Hints:
The chain has 198 residues and is α/β, with parallel strands linked by helices. The protein has helices at residues 14-23, 48-63, 97-111, 177-180, 185-191, and strands at 6-10, 29-31, 67-76, 120-130, 136-147, 163-165. It is built from 5 helices and 6 strands. Strands 2-1-3-4-5-6 form a 6-stranded mixed beta sheet, sandwiched between helices. Strand 1, helix 1 and strand 2 (29-31) form a beta-alpha-beta unit. The longest helix has 16 residues, at 48-63. Bound molecules: inosinic acid (IMP).
Amino acid sequence: MNKIEEIIIGTNNEGKYKEICDLLPKNVKKYFPKEYGILTPEETGKSFEENSFIKASYFSKKMNLICLSDDSGLEIDLLKGEPGIYSSRWSGEKNNFDLAIKKIFVKMNSIKTNWRNDNTARFVCCMTLFWPDGKNHLGKGTVKGKISTLKKGENGFGYDPIFIPNGYSQTFGEMKFKLKTSIDHRYNAFLKIKKFFT
Ligand code: IMP
């Protein structure tokens, strides 16, 4: 099997781009769609798997390069899996995660006034590798945890300030980059496709 030498990272989210680049070997040349004026396709799928495939095939065809895409999100049990595949859309057009996090607290409070012990959740990530000839491979990873009653930490992106992974007391937002990216859903998804790079 030929090892991958250059790749387009199928996301325009800078937080994700940084984390995915960090997972990949240094000698792999990485392209960021935004730098080539390529917008993200509409995510019309009904699952992380479908949306991850849509993005990977789209970016691969646009650049005629192998693409590694990521579709991910936060599933909260009390909210029956919401925001799930709509995690990005909850932040609105301006990607305002203060707003998305407020929405989560409002919804959880409306279902249960004291949800401190009913706060289980998970982050999910589906990564798809798509080759210009149509070959593709998907890896899925999750990390289980809890929703913090308070927003904590300045690190990371998106919902990181309210997610406490099981076995830890800090939110992802309080954790150092290296620790988060060695235990999270993206890392666990990457383990399943790592063989194409090393
Ligand atoms: P999409 O995969 O581009 O549809 O966006 C996924 C959304 O889920 C992101 O915009 C984030 O809000 C959220 N998300 C996914 N992974 C993470 C993470 O590692 N930390 C915090 N939020 C995340």
